[in-house]
Amino acid sequence: MGIYLNPENVDFQKSLNSEIYIDKTELIAYTNKKLNTEQGYICVSRPRRFGKSMAANMLTAYYSRGCDSRKLFQGLKIATHPDFEKHLNQYNVIHLNMRDYLTESENMKQLIQFVEDDLLDELQQEFSDLRMPRRKTLVKVLEQAFVQYKIPFVFIIDEWDCIIRNGNDEELVHRYLQFLHSLFKSEESKSFLALAYITGILPIKKVKDESALNNFREYTMLDSYPITEFYGFTEEEVKQLC
Fold this sequence. Notes:
By secondary structure, this protein is of the alpha/beta class. It is built from 12 helices and 5 strands.
């Protein structure tokens, strides 16, 4: 288990411990249907305070091989679904919050380097006998890890667009988008990637270099079916809370 690769489930546990918690775990039933398919690229675009980070932590707790979340989900809606056990804690999960890297970095080149360094360090720690490729790029190492261990990766990126929102240099923003392209659209990534789930505020269509993420199905405030009820509070949930 690591900080970014196969993390623990403590962040979702905090949500469950909170005074107000609404069960949104049936989102997992939806993402399970998208695993290892051409539709396994999901982008949730919402304003702040709609539960995007909570959902990302929930998906991490469910898929991550770095923890045992069986008891955590007992009594929640997803535990009654037939595929609950099949996918529980069975994937190599990489969970990133890009805002953390934006705060630490002086420029986009450094930000991307920090992400790659952190993930390569944890990959080497997690897979001590991993046969490193000659060119140790992040994508090449992920591809080799999948070839060697046959365990797919789930990428969960929170605040993916904070770089776009805060980026003043088009060339550096383009560099970031190319980095995402290598993770989510390259021929190599198609083999090791079971699911990509990203959250943000900006709609993808407003990004100039749209081709970097045009394989994602985007769920916005105006176009969120069939996962509408899994973000924010429904009318019935508000009535129950009040």
